[in-house]
Amino acid sequence: MQSKKRGLNYIFSISDRSPLLPWLFLLPFLFFFLSFMVYPMIQGLYISFTDYSLLSEKVNLVGIRNYLNFLRPGDLFLISLGNTFKYVALAVPILLGCGLLFAIVVNAPIKGRMFFRAALSAPFVVNVASVALLWTWILDREIGMINYYFMKLGLPKQEWIYHPFSAMMVIVMVSLWGGLGSVMLPFLAGLQDIPQEYYEAAIIDGASKWNLFRYITLPLLKPILLFSGVSQVVAGFQVFGQVTLITGGGPGYSTRVAMQHLYEVGFSWFRLGEAAAMSWVLFLIIMVFTIIQFRYLSGRVEY
Amino acid sequence: MRDELKYKFFYGLGFLFLTILAIIWLVPILWCLSTSLKLNENTYTYPIKWIPDPLTIKNYITVFTSGRGANVGLAFVNSTIVASLTIFLILMIDSLAAYPLARMEFKGKSLIFSIVIGSLFIPIYTVLVPRFMMFWKLSLLNTYWCLIFPALASSYGVFMLRQFMLSIPRELEEAALIDGCSRFRTFWTIIFPLTRPALATLSLFTFLSSWNDYLWPLLTLNDPTKMTLPVALALFRTAYGNWEMGTVMAAAFTGAAPTLIVYFFTQKMIVKGMITSGLKG
Fold this sequence. Notes:
The complex is a heterodimer of chains A (303) and B (281).
Chain A: H1 2-17, H2 21-47, H3 65-69, H4 76-107, H5 113-121, H6 128-138, H7 145-152, H8 164-193, H9 196-204, H10 209-237, H11 241-247, H12 258-267, H13 272-298
Helix pairs in contact in A: 4-8, 4-10, 4-12, 6-11, 8-10, 8-11, 10-13, 12-13
Chain B: H1 2-36, H2 58-65, H3 72-103, H4 109-119, H5 128-137, H6 145-152, H7 156-166, H8 171-178, H9 183-194, H10 196-212, H11 215-220, H12 229-238, H13 245-278
């Protein structure tokens, strides 16, 4: 027993000096990372230059044809991409704005603020299918709760998901309802990290409330703003569940988003080459946005 | 005196604002719970009766046993199995990988680390098509593995655990190393237990993302006996009409309850994890 233990220790102590040791630790992770992240990324790029389809055995290189297809006027991918931009342009500022505003309010010394924090942030842990089921019924044109109360208040019945404009607003609002926690909570934690002395010193110097916010709160929250901004833009371009489950992309194509189009082209019509090209276009768009955000915001981040 | 009045005014305003917000945010969830406990024929009567009369759990029994539309009961089991396996494997693999990145000097370390960070921002659809083809060729579609393997490729846990390990005092393991303890044993007996708070946070986040994932399971699971909850719920809805709202809401609440319960008990940990992982890099 004793000698066996020493033997094992001996093996480990040899490998301790080996330059391979760190790689031994990294091996399991690198295996999955390389096979299911790095390799698919490269392969995806290759597929995007082919006419790969699940329906035929033969694969032909088609150059950039898949990409050129998107330039056709009226292409459904372009329409979906346009809707995605519309969604991101609406949802991200609303989420960040409300997230910051509500964080400031629930950070104030108000009775029951722990309850308010929990209430406002809770929906962000709920899965998108449950969220969609809930809101489809609440927003139902005929028997929905909201239209009932609208009628009670003497307001006209709303079309909600049956009208192009309100359908997009429904998606944005459901995203706000469900995503608020993921933006508000980091802001809240950031606010609590700001030393009270900063404010006290500024108040002695006669700073106004707005100046306190503008010159102390906002600069100190910049790293969180950057982090939330980037992750919300990335998430926004991938919006899928809310749309497919609530509006299904309709009415017409008015809320059809890029992810939904990609999904249908790739997995309902099995044109994987085209779908791969779409995912690379989307990837590049996101990269550009991320870099712009980092450039614009991190240059002024003050730690 | 005037200041006090002003304070009271703003306090009242803030309180009112929050109350209205809290109502907007909670009503859908409460309505879902309340409807799920009503008989189907009592669900669409207005004005809304918030306390179901009679109170019934019939809808939940239907959801778990009927299998019409989708087998939600089985999906619940599947989701639990997938989430637990994913959490277990991620904790093992990611903490092993984080250790050398935090504590050892070796060639290629900074390269590996920057790749790890870079991949944090890769959106899932970039690899959606090729990943699907991989699992198709490996004949792993409609298995738990096609959900678990991609989760193990995420570098989020490695990054977060490495950050945490950096904050553990070096002296603790140096003593062990001088006593002739091997690197692996030092890691396993000293570092791993000390990383517990970060491991708990990672488990939590892994649970949430595994339980709530919709797009990838929708793509890879079409066998009703293998589906996870969000996919099963989406399918479940299609088999029920307007007059069966109670049953549908029971299904929706079944999907939401586990994460909500976990959230209420671990709120602080989640908030902390959200900022440490994202910012203190």
